[in-house]
Each structure stands twice: as structure tokens, then as C-alpha cells.
Automatic annotation (TrEMBL):
<keyword id="KW-1003">Cell membrane</keyword>
<feature type="transmembrane region" description="Helical">
    <location>
        <begin position="401"/>
        <end position="421"/>
    </location>
</feature>
<dbReference type="Pfam" id="PF01554">
    <property type="entry name" value="MatE"/>
</dbReference>
<feature type="transmembrane region" description="Helical">
    <location>
        <begin position="331"/>
        <end position="351"/>
    </location>
</feature>
<dbReference type="GO" id="GO:0015297">
    <property type="term" value="F:antiporter activity"/>
</dbReference>
<keyword id="KW-1133">Transmembrane helix</keyword>
<keyword id="KW-0472">Membrane</keyword>
<protein>
    <recommendedName>
        <fullName>Multidrug-efflux transporter</fullName>
    </recommendedName>
</protein>
<dbReference type="InterPro" id="IPR002528">
    <property type="entry name" value="MATE_fam"/>
</dbReference>
<feature type="transmembrane region" description="Helical">
    <location>
        <begin position="248"/>
        <end position="273"/>
    </location>
</feature>
<feature type="transmembrane region" description="Helical">
    <location>
        <begin position="141"/>
        <end position="158"/>
    </location>
</feature>
<dbReference type="InterPro" id="IPR050222">
    <property type="entry name" value="MATE_MdtK"/>
</dbReference>
<feature type="transmembrane region" description="Helical">
    <location>
        <begin position="371"/>
        <end position="389"/>
    </location>
</feature>
<keyword id="KW-0406">Ion transport</keyword>
<dbReference type="InterPro" id="IPR048279">
    <property type="entry name" value="MdtK-like"/>
</dbReference>
<feature type="transmembrane region" description="Helical">
    <location>
        <begin position="433"/>
        <end position="453"/>
    </location>
</feature>
<feature type="transmembrane region" description="Helical">
    <location>
        <begin position="21"/>
        <end position="42"/>
    </location>
</feature>
Length: 468
């Protein structure tokens, strides 16, 4: 086994220098997410070359895709936090068992979502507002994606397990390989490539989905080979001896289920906004999708730092290193604020240029630019709220994130957007009122998140005093 996978020494190094530990974890995550973000941008550029309807058809899939990934990544967060705390407590057997629970959950999620997707996917797309050619294209995309869901689910859990032990480099390398493969396969399956002798399959939106499934299958095979055959990780898997542990299952789901429900709520919110925006035009839905891909540029480093914070907070909390925990929280929050200010200014300045990469449709470009230039004003608040939530998850507390997300999406954002669009019946050209709804909800969520973290830090201060 690679000595770099020795989480005992990794824990000692993390405690010795928390800021260095943060970047040692965050940079590989950032690099991997950067390549994935590049794929999302390139993928949307390819799809945008087909038509505006093609972009819109993918947009209608996003709530469903986000729902599945939300459940997987939410439970994955619970797995990461649980394994990190067990390693902090130097309890390897429980850490191994937590990883085995994750794979069992992955099998259950794969079976449920694949079955539901094939059986009811088209009806759900129709319910979300897709119709005509957009419904046809949306179903072409979703049908193929459903076939590859197990690969995506298991790969996500493998990454969560490795994150829990503080290994960010290996999953980053595997994810990067899969993303590069996806980018190479996209044009081959989407276009006919007449300029290259017609070697492409010309499958359009369906081709984009096939490229995604093939690349995710490759990632899955690599993870299985390295973790089961090569035993790369500190965590070991012995599924043949797996036994259900209620305490470990609860340790995972008390963080994972609220995190999953939070992402489900965000998926519902995205679906609601798609239905609202189709009231304006299909181009408006496409613009919302384009803008969503672009704001990944802003949150790329934020999610990387937030992911690192979950591991470090979990380990420090498990090891009762409260002083180091408190210092890394302050350090992480201050750094995400500075980074988001800079990246928001960059996106604000170049929003028209970025939007033009995806489509030549002027209406889509104008709406996307309007969204980005308003939302960048509150993105620093979003960044702090994201990190605050991951800190609380690292502490084993999942409810705060669920409460904050529920208030933001279902309590403020969606109701306000519905009110502005259908009660006040704002003019079709005034789609920005929907962005105002998002800005208001984001500001409220920021205040609640910061207040909640401060309360948790005060509790930790009292715990530290009791340990002295």
C-alpha cells in the first residue's frame, strides 16, 4: 500500500499546519473540478452549436440529474464526514465499515433511479414543461443517461470515501481522465464531422449523453481496479464480511440525508424556475442554463475549499483538536470571501464574451449576461454560506444546511419568483425580477448560515474549556 495513503501520518501533518493542509486538499479538488467545469462548458458549446432547442432540452434534464446527484453527493458528504471523524479517533475498523455502507447505499440508489428513469422519465419531463421537439430531445438525452447512472453513483461514493481519508489527488486524477475522455468523445458522437471524412455518428443531444456514459463507465472501472485489486486506499473493503451497523448508518445519514434533501430541494427549485422561465420564452430557459454553467467559474475554488473543510473539520473534531478546528474555519471563510470577490468581478466584466461562446442567439446571450451581472453582486455571500454549511457537516450536523436551503429555495426564492411573474405579471422583458428573487433569498440564507456557525463555534469554545 502506498505510504501516502497512511492516514495516521496525514492526520498528524494536518494538525501541525491546518492552512497548508487546507490547500493540500483543496488544490487537487480544484484542479479536478476545473477540468470537469471545462467539460461542462465545452459540452454546452457543442450542444449550443446544434440549436437553442438542444440547450433547452438539456436544461429540462438538469433538475432530474441534480436530484440523483444530490442524493448521492449528499450521502457522500455524510460518508466523508463519518470516515474523517473515525480516522481522527483512530478507529479504522469503523472507517472501513462506513465505506462498505456507502457502497451498499450506492447499489440501492442505482437500482431505484435507473428503474424510475426508464419507467417515468418521459412523463416527468412533460410535467416539468417540456413539450414538442424539446420533449423529444430531452427524452433522448435522459434515456441514455439512465443507463449510465450506476457508474456515476458508485464513482461519486468512491470519491467521497477517499475524501474522508484525506486523499484528494487520486480521485482528482481519475476524474480528470474521465472528463478529458468525455470532451474527446463529445464531437465524435454529437456531430457527423464531415470535414474529417464523416467519421462522426451525428447523434446530436443523444450523442452527448452517450459520450458522458462511456467516460463515466471508464472512471468506474479504474476506481474498482485501483481500490479492490491494487488496494490503493488506506480504507479497505471487505463486502463479503459486511454487517449492518445502526450506529454507523446513523452517523452517515444524520449528515447525508439532510444534505441530500437540501440538494433535492435545489433540484425542485431549478425545476420551478424552468417552468417559470418557459413562461417568458424557451430562449430564457436556455440562457438560465448557460449562465448556470458560467457561474461554475466563480464557485470552482469555493466548492474545493468547502470540500477540504469537511475533511479537516471532521478529523480535527474527532481528534478533539478544537483550537486547530477554530483556526481553520476562520482561515477558510476569509479566503473564500477574497477569492469570490475577485472571480465575481472577472465574470461581471467578461459575461458578454463568455455567453457568446455558447450560442449566437442574441436573446439567450442578453438574458444570460443580465443574470450573471446581478448574481455576481451576491456571490460572495453564497460562498460564505456554502463553506459554513460544510463546516457544520464536518461537525456531524446535517440539519442546518437543510433548514437554510429550505428557507432560501422554498421559503423565499421560488415563491417570490412566482409572485413576480404570475401575480404581478411583470412584462416578458422584465425577467430580471426572477433574479431579484434569487438575490433576496441568498442574502437571507447568508445571515442565517453565519449566525448558525457562530453559535456552533461558541459551543466548541466551551468544549475546549472543559477539556483543559
Amino acid at each position: 500500500m502506498d505510504t501516502d495513503s497512511n492516514s495516521g501520518s496525514r492526520l498528524a501533518i494536518f494538525i501541525e499546519n491546518p492552512p497548508k493542509a487546507l490547500w493540500s486538499l483543496a488544490i487537487p479538488i480544484m484542479f479536478g473540478m476545473g477540468i470537469h467545469t471545462l467539460y461542462n462548458l465545452v459540452d454546452m458549446i457543442f450542444i449550443g452549436r446544434l440549436s437553442g432547442d438542444a440547450i433547452t432540452s438539456v436544461a429540462f434534464n438538469m433538475p432530474l440529474f441534480f436530484l440523483m446527484l444530490g442524493l448521492t453527493m449528499g450521502l457522500g458528504t455524510g460518508v466523508t464526514a463519518s470516515i474523517a471523524r473515525f480516522i481522527g479517533e483512530e478507529n479504522k475498523s469503523s472507517a472501513d465499515n462506513a465505506a462498505e455502507h456507502a457502497l451498499v447505499m450506492g447499489a440501492i440508489i442505482s437500482l431505484i433511479f435507473t428503474s424510475l428513469g426508464f419507467a417515468y422519465g418521459q412523463d416527468i419531463l412533460r410535467y416539468l414543461g417540456a413539450e414538442g421537439v424539446i420533449l423529444e430531445l430531452s427524452w433522448d438525452y435522459l434515456y441514455v443517461i439512465c443507463a449510465g447512472l450506476p457508474f456515476m453513483v458508485f464513482s461519486a461514493f468512491f470519491r467521497s470515501i477517499l475524501a474522508g481519508e484525506g486523499d484528494m489527488k487520486f480521485p482528482m486524477m481519475v476524474a480528470a481522465l474521465g472528463t478529458i475522455l468525455n470532451i474527446l468523445l463529445d464531437p465524435l458522437f454529437i456531430f457527423e464531422l464531415d470535414q474529417f471524412g464523416g467519421i462522426g455518428f451525428g447523434l446530436g443531444v443523444k450523442g452527448a449523453a452517450i459520450a458522458t456514459v462511456l467516460s463515466q463507465a471508464t472512471v468506474f472501472v479504474i476506481f474498482v481496479f485501483m481500490l479492490y485489486i491494487k488496494e490503493h486506499a488506506y480504507i479497505t473493503f471487505r463486502l463479503q464480511y459486511f454487517s449492518l451497523s445502526r450506529s454507523i448508518l446513523w452517523d452517515i445519514i444524520k449528515v447525508g440525508i439532510p444534505a441530500s434533501l437540501s440538494m433535492v430541494i435545489m433540484a425542485v427549485g431549478q425545476g420551478v424556475f424552468n417552468r417559470i422561465l418557459i413562461h417568458y420564452s424557451s430562449q430564457t430557459v436556455a440562457a438560465y442554463q448557460v449562465a448556470g454553467r458560467l457561474d461554475m467559474l466563480i464557485f470552482l475554488p469555493i466548492f474545493a475549499i468547502a470540500g477540504a473543510m469537511t475533511t479537516l473539520v471532521g478529523m480535527f473534531y474527532g481528534a478533539k483538536e478544537i483550537g486547530q478546528l477554530r483556526s481553520i474555519v476562520k482561515y477558510g471563510v476569509s479566503r473564500v470571501f477574497i477569492i469570490t470577490i475577485a472571480s465575481s468581478a472577472f465574470v461581471y466584466a467578461f459575461a458578454p464574451t463568455f455567453s457568446g461562446f455558447f450560442t449566437n442567439d442574441i436573446e439567450i446571450q442578453d438574458v444570460a449576461v443580465g443574470f450573471l451581472r446581478l448574481m455576481t453582486l451576491v456571490y460572495p455571500f453564497v460562498a460564505i454560506a456554502i463553506v459554513s454549511g460544510r463546516v457544520m457537516q464536518g461537525l456531524g450536523k446535517g440539519i442546518p444546511v437543510l433548514v437554510i436551503t429550505t428557507i432560501r429555495v422554498l421559503g423565499v426564492s421560488a415563491p417570490l419568483a412566482l409572485y413576480f411573474s404570475f401575480v404581478l405579471d411583470v412584462h416578458r422583458q422584465h425577467v430580471e425580477w426572477n433574479w431579484y428573487a434569487m438575490m433576496i433569498s441568498t442574502s437571507i440564507a447568508f445571515v442565517i448560515a453565519v449566525s448558525w456557525v457562530r453559535m456552533e463555534m461558541n459551543k466548541l469554545n466551551k468544549l475546549e474549556e472543559s477539556l483543559v
